[in-house]
Design a protein that fits this description.
75% of the residues lie in helices and 2% in strands. It has 455 residues and is mostly helical. It has one domain: Growth Hormone, Chain: A (Up-down Bundle).
């Protein structure tokens, strides 16, 4: 049997300790650079959601096809799929703040072109697809750069709180953006919605410009191989990262297709609620996502068990949403659905970030975003086709059932690899289901129980 190599300082995980929950979030917000980065994320996310919903609705009106909306999502995520790993290499080789500023400049330019085309009444379907691809190109570098930049701003013991705050900012922004886009489109028209998104994108660029380079923590480069293959090899030989990436692949492909599903729910295949209903679904969904993000900040520990549990609950909730045949019940269901999705996704992101060394985090983050992009290229097209061909509720059932099965299977694989099993104790309702070592006594059990990542 081959001997295990000792981890080098450039690749071993960083130690994590500190105050979880709101106290940790308060201490994190006390960092000046992080406040500007969070403000940039907030306004940038809001701009992205307003522009995305507006473009999707324009495309839906132009084509009357949910599948066409899914194709636009595919164009947006295809560059991340094809070039995303290179973005991780750039993130680990060049200043991350500079990369984020360049990417935000591309976003501003794309929105400016879209607004001009709308003002000139020259917008065509292929323009929307091309601009979606440009936003995807910007995200190739921006997503891993922003993710890794957080670790240069906040200390390791504040990283989990920062991830929770980022998620909260994202979904508060999406709540405002979704509700605001519906109002802007209905009252002022799509042109002004895009103009407002452009203004927010410019503000986001300005907030990035306020981040002080001199206050960023330096990042040492890993020795030896430093390209894409090194990042893939590193992620594969870290079990916690490997299982996290496999899980997010199923969730991204099927469970993160809510954009297409909400578009279908707003049409005659669903509840036929129109543009106002489409914006309402995103607003209600964002409210649930905020709830999930707030709960995620109160986590005292993160491990494969908690992440897999959240994934199972998320899949079951999406299956329950498939049974919501009235619109009020559907609105309640998507609140629960969004909350569990955010708990699951933020748990996975925190787990792989806390398991990776700072010098490798850009490539690991890029691999994560590339997997998400691959799922977003395939999933919306498939789920959109199912919604149009079979029905909205069948599409929800498929989107929830596959991640549920994948999480259960992965849980069994992880438990077997760690010599664990499920124990059902009917005499203790509070501890009805527990994960225990297969060998319950002796030093072997102590060794198994002390393995990291079981919390």
């Amino acid at each position: 049997m081959a001997m295990m190599q000792e981890p080098s300082p450039a690749t071993e995980p960083i130690p994590v300790a500190g105050s979880p929950g709101w106290r940790g979030a308060r201490h994190t917000l006390a960092i000046r650079n992080y406040r500007f980065l969070l403000a940039s994320m907030f306004t940038g996310f809001m701009a992205a959601w307003i522009s995305r919903i507006t473009q999707d609705w324009i495309l839906l009106e132009m084509t009357q096809s949910v599948a066409a909306v899914g194709l636009a999502v595919t164009f947006q995520f295809a560059p991340i799929l094809l070039l995303g790993l290179w973005g991780g290499v750039l993130t680990d080789r060049f200043p991350r703040l500079r990369i984020a500023r360049i990417a935000q400049t591309m976003t501003v330019a794309g929105l400016l072109v879209l607004m001009l085309l709308l003002m000139l009444n020259a917008l065509q379907v292929w323009h929307i697809y091309a601009l979606a691809a440009v936003s995807g190109l910007a995200a190739v570098a921006e997503s891993p750069a922003r993710s890794a930049l957080v670790t240069q701003i906040v200390p390791p013991n504040r990283l989990q709180a920062a991830i929770g705050l980022n998620a909260t900012a994202l979904h508060v922004a999406s709540l405002i953006g979704a509700a605001g886009s519906g109002i802007l489109i209905a009252v002022f028209g799509a042109r002004w919605a895009v103009a407002f998104a452009l203004l927010l994108a410019v503000i986001a660029w300005g907030m990035l410009a306020c981040v002080r380079t001199s206050e960023l923590q330096p990042v040492a480069r890993a020795g030896g191989r430093s390209g894409m293959r090194a990042g893939i090899h590193y992620a594969y030989r870290k079990p916690t990262i490997r299982w996290s990436l496999i899980l997010i692949a199923f969730i991204a492909t099927f469970g993160m297709t809510h954009t297409v599903l909400y578009a279908a729910a707003a049409r005659d295949v669903g509840f036929d609620s129109g543009a106002a209903g489409y914006g309402l679904y995103f607003a209600v969904s964002s409210a649930g996502a905020i709830l999930g993000a707030v709960v995620s900040m109160g986590r005292r520990s993160i491990g494969m068990r908690s992440v897999l549990t959240c994934a199972i609950v998320f899949g079951a909730t999406m299956l329950a949403t498939a049974a919501a045949f009235t619109e009020p019940l559907f609105l309640v269901a998507i609140v629960c659905l969004s909350a569990t999705r955010i708990l699951c996704v933020t748990g996975i992101e925190a787990l792989f970030q806390l398991s990776a060394n700072p010098s490798m985090r850009g490539r690991v983050a890029a691999l994560y975003f590339a997997i998400v992009a691959a799922g977003q290229c395939v999933g919306p097209l498939l789920i959109g086709w199912v919604a149009e061909s079979v029905g909205l509720h069948t599409a929800f059932a498929l989107a929830g059932g596959i991640p549920l099965v994948a999480a259960c299977v992965l849980g069994i694989v992880v438990m077997r690899s760690r010599e664990l099993r499920l124990r059902i104790d009917l005499r203790r309702p509070r501890r009805l289901i527990r994960i225990v070592p297969r060998t319950p006594v002796g030093p072997v059990a102590d060794l198994v129980g002390s393995r990291p990542g079981l919390s």
